[in-house]
Batch of 2 targets.
Target 1
Amino acid sequence: MKSGGFTAKATAAISRFKRDSEQALGSRRAQQVKKMLLGQHTNDGWLAKIIILLLLAVIGFLYLQPVFYMVSTMLKTVSDLIDPVVQWIPRTVNWQNLSDAWRGLRYPEAFTNTLTIALVCSAAQVCSCAVTGYALARLKFPGRNLAFFLIIVTFLIPPQITMIPLYAIYGKLGWLNTPFVFFIPAIFAQGLRGALFIIIFRQFFLTQPKALEEAAKIDGASSFRLFFRIMLPLARSACLVVFLFSFIWYWNMYYEPSMFLGKDFLPLSLRLNLLQEELMGNTQINFNAGFGKDPISEGPKMAAAFLIIMPPLIVYMITQRWFTEGIERTGLVE
Amino acid sequence: MNTDSGHIVEPGGSMHPAGTLPAGDSNGMDDKQRRRRYRMYRWRDYGVGYLFMLPWIIGFAVLVAFPVGWSLFNSFNKVRITPEGFKFDWVGLDNYKRAFVEDNVYSIQLITYFQEMLLMIPLILIFSFFVSLLLNQKFPGRTVVRAVFFLPVIFATGQVLTELFVQGAGKLPFIEQYNLEGLVRENVGPRIAEPVLAVLSKAVIILWYSGVQILIFIAGFQTIPKTIYEAVRIDGATPWESFWKITLPAMVPFIGLNAVFTIVDLFTFPFNPVMDHVRANMFKPATGYGYASALAWIYFAIIIALLAVVLWITYRAAKGRRAMQ
């Protein structure tokens, strides 16, 4: 009786323990799963990752949709364009539009013009902005703060204000329709978004250790040697970032060229405007011209747009990480 | 003294080695001379600074300060181009008055565009903030996705954007699907519906203007120390709470920065009507440079007001946060 009661108690205790431990194990399992799905802090689990990726995929698709549209339209024939059944994927891939656009843009010539502007100006801008940024960060002179303030102000002045006087000045100097209208401002640190680049360089040089300069100065290096031999090589990453951004923005610039460049020296962006005229002579029929959406010019236009964005896109593919990490790297944001 | 700055460039004239300066060999010198020497040294030093600044100073004087001044002067004049050059007739504020009273296009364009801008700026800011928040999380393929969202900066040529818009590619697809246009038209008055619809019709292209802003926000997130998040987590804060209480307040300066950048970025927005109008009036014999300059200055004045409001709000928000702590 006594022993029986004991065994019964013991078995009950064992079974309770078993149940408890099973429950504990089970809930541990469940917790593990939960942790994997939700993560420790709900934003580092798989579930969160999947949701984030999904969200980004949807937004990314919407975001890039015009590009897909561009490429798809470019490869369509006119009959595909008119046919409402054909949505994204053309029935036959048609390269005619691309060759039309190539001809219509006078691609080799316009490409060279755009490339000249972009390359020369970005190189000039790297040099002039680095020098200015260094002076603002490291050299002492009265009026330094005023200069920095003025640089920020320059950034905020709309180009509309200075456009008319600049047009008159360039006209007087006979620079209109030549690339000098872009070269000269870039050399004098007033190029496209020059103020922003000066600020980037300034921030970069501010983050560099002072000891380096002091050591060089004690060794008797002049400020110029110090800058060109030590500081500029140190700033290689900042230079690259500025060069790339500058290149892209010069490539994409369209307002200033449309103002200053006329017949003789046309970059790609202005050629796109003339595309229809250029091709009109070649296409005999041109119904509903003047309307925005016109199936005949639509294909070549999209092809032309594609040809224009292609070179910077290739540059971007190669140098992608310099763009996306560049802003952090230069310490602009601090 | 200032002229001294010229000497330092002379070839061979090496810069002051930092050691040779005043204190050491001052024994035999009287005080006055020493001070003079010191001052000379200072100005030499300054001279180097000015020399480094020289390209910018020239550029600023010729390509910014002078054009801005001239443009302002133009805006108070009637400018005629004669064979002998420019002729200026002072007309005071007449150009500005005409811009509002006589010009029946400009003021309407301006108002519509600013209404659009007031929609576009928050749209860009919220979108870029949201996307950068997502991109800031850890997940596989993060760099690729980051690259995708920066992509539009690469091909945002004005003409290309205009073409895309003309072809109707700038729309968000669900706008037509759910007949949002009709919805907007029904629910708000025509005054507000107009800019809303204008913004909706090029929504994607507007969002393309958020590439740099996304990068700035991501860089901004890095400035918030991780330890703060750990600390509040131990105190039992949920991610939701820590976003509102820590992330957002810390990001206020960056939101302000991005707002300013967006406003500047929109100067050359291809659908900015001010440009075309200014240019058209510039070459019109009846109006000319003077009137066109006045138009540009009106635009600038409104931009400055907008910037001031943005900076004030940022300042207030940042200050409120400091007071709370």
Note: Residues 27-74 of chain A form one domain.
Target 2
Amino acid sequence: MATAVQTVERENYLNSNYGIKSWLLTTDHKRIAVLYLISITAMFWLGGFFAMMIRLELLTPAGDLVSSDTYNKLFTMHGIIMVFFFLIPAVPAVIGNFVVPLMVGAKDMAFPRVNLLSWYLYMAGAITALTAMVTGGVDTGWTFYTPFSTTYSNTHVIGAAIGIFIAGFSSILTGLNFIVTIHRMRAPGLTWRRLPLFCWSNYAAAIIMVLGTPVIAITLLLVALERAFHIGIFDPRLGGDPILFQHLFWFYSHPAVYLMILPGMGVISEIVACFSRKRVFGYEFVALASIAIAVFGFLVWAHHMFVAGISVYAALVFSLLSYLVAIPSAVKVFNWTATMYKGSISYNTPMLYAFGFIGLFTVGGLTGIFLASLGIDVHVHDTYFVIAHFHYVMVGGGVMAYMAGLHFWWPKMTGKMYPEAWAKLSALLVFVGFNTTFFPQFILGYMGSPRRYHAYPPEFQVLNVLSTAGASILAVGYVLPMIYFVWSLRYGKDAGPNPWNATGLEWMTSSPPPTHNFDETPVVTWEAYDYEHQPQEEITVGH
Amino acid sequence: MAEHKETGSVGHIAPAKLYVAIWAILTALTLTTVLVSLVDIGPMNVVVALVIATIKGTLVVLFFMHLRYSPKLTMATVVAAMFWLFLLLSLTMTDYLTRAWPTYPGH
Amino acid sequence: MATSDIGDIQVAERALQHHFADMEQQRDTASFGMWMFLLTEIMFFGGLFCAYLVYRASYYHAFVEGSQKMNITLGATNTAVLICSSLTMALGVRAAQMGKPKLMVILLLITIVFGFGFLGIKAVEYHEHWVNHEFPGPSFHFETGDPAHPATDPQHTEIYFSLYWAMTGLHALHMVIGIGLVAWLVIAGLMGAYTPHYYNPVENVGLYWHFVDLVWIYLFPMLYLISKKHGG
């Protein structure tokens, strides 16, 4: 379709301007997405390195590789980096930044300079947190629970907290930009009912960024103040209540879990529709389920605190409210499956990741219901069951969706195809490696193995060895894409504007898109995912 | 672009007299709330203080901040802010207000 | 008149960023963005309001004793100063809307004077608390000043003062930023940056200024007026 166009190099966002300054001062949402891609990938590998250190230590029951203090710092830094500097920005700031303005038919985000500022704030936050880690590390766990973080820990809590505080403003501004862009920058005719589900889910995630992040920012500021001046807000010796910290922390950090998964759900909706050649089943319900998850997410936070000393009556209320989240989550899973029913499915890499996402997210979500039940939570609280549960959601869900989206939109971002066979292999490795790593941890946790210890009784060794072996497979599964994505930049086949024969405005412009996105502002007259009326060509690439 | 015609627009110019009138009411309410605080009316003190503060805040938002003349979207933003602040405060208080309740029957 | 209109429209066209279709879209977008930002500010202060609510409910008498140390005269004066500054700010935005840049600059300068007035009075209060050791930390010391009624719960009064300093301090920081923003408007206004076709920055800084006023409208009764007679 586009071979004639590709022979002459068209001006696009990558070749319109050269030099380091043209990147560092860019306000183009596509270039900012690439800046994020590079920095987030670096943080992913750093967090992954800490994860490998954790798994290597747990290979044997004795605490022999690192001391217990070092181990505390390892899992803390793994958590801080992966949560605040990888998972939260991953899908929105990389894929969302690139794709959302294209999807809504806009020339850029509503506030392009604020968008660049977000990236600088992210970098400033990351560098501050990394400085704290290099100069000695933090050992509080990523949750910074008081009074340990405010009074007893001798590590660099203030530095890490300030780093997250700064990165929080990056997140706030990104969310603000998404909401305003989706409200104000839509192309003529692109009504809310025609909006792609990826935009809906980023909108829902942005609600959490805008409403939740300020609360954790002020909370971490109070932690830093308390450490520096002993003001006593969370210190029980001074009459403060350490549980208040947990309330304020989880008011953001529980919705933040949905913030990590919601944009990923949007990715999956796009991919499932495209590779089943069908309109998403129950489009309105999937769209509203995103908003419902964002809103319900704010009603359930104290289920992290059942054994912390909160009132049992409050615990009952929060336990009950937590079950609410299962409804919109299930709506999504059922509707994706129904979309595939009688669809003409092709098994390209993005779709393989989407399969992985649906299965693993379901496991992660259902074990979340176990944990929301008061009785079971008391039994498995702070065990490996919890670790396995949230890794199923965050890695099995969040990272899988990120990888799916990266493969799906890589041709759009770079104009090149990745090698399909290698990509399928790595998707398989990730799936197998992931399950081998984390499924044994459900069993470990159920048998009572507590989290955050660097040594464990010998009878747990078999499951731990299995987990470490799985982590090695998982690592290979993540290294491979890194190599073939870079390889494809030079040697990949030209993708053409629409390699997947997909619907959506982003596929109607060239790949990579020109700086101003569209030659003329598109006018939308059709529903999202109008695959019934899309010419039924085979997906040509990668077969 | 899709909806900016139908939801109204910023840019309404209010008469200067209105602003001065709002200022006068705000100043009078400030004086009132100080005077009421000097009289002991038990738990009503806090109620009166917060009601007056809310009236003042509403006047500032509606007139000085032009919310009255703003698009519906802006109103929705303000309502969302109020709602989420309410969630934060009320759900946190479900814990603190019920901590002292008896946990086991007979204790 | 006609030539100045054309000049105004040219200023406006230069201010139109490439990704917007027209000035109206740009203005509505900027305004909505500012409201969204204020929403995040409400949640930012919301964390402190939550802490205040929890501790006030738990340590009511300690909070009453702490609030007795507040200088209501200065606090009420400061409230009035802020309300006046909001009036001049609102009139300043109005002047910008009507295309009277000189009037706008004058009104904004008055707003800045009120802003410094607020900070000056606040500094006097802070100094009083500081010399009386009413600053949380190792040097904190609290007495009611009435030998017949010694402090019942000085430890929890310290939490009251922690919140007092944190909330008013964060508010004062917002005032400082606000003064800086208004000063920037004055300079840009003198350079003729704003016309009735383009005044988003004036509108948005105005929103910010009123928001900071709004926060104080709540802080004043919460911290100063808990109870002058009750409790103790």
Note: The mean pLDDT of chain C is 90.
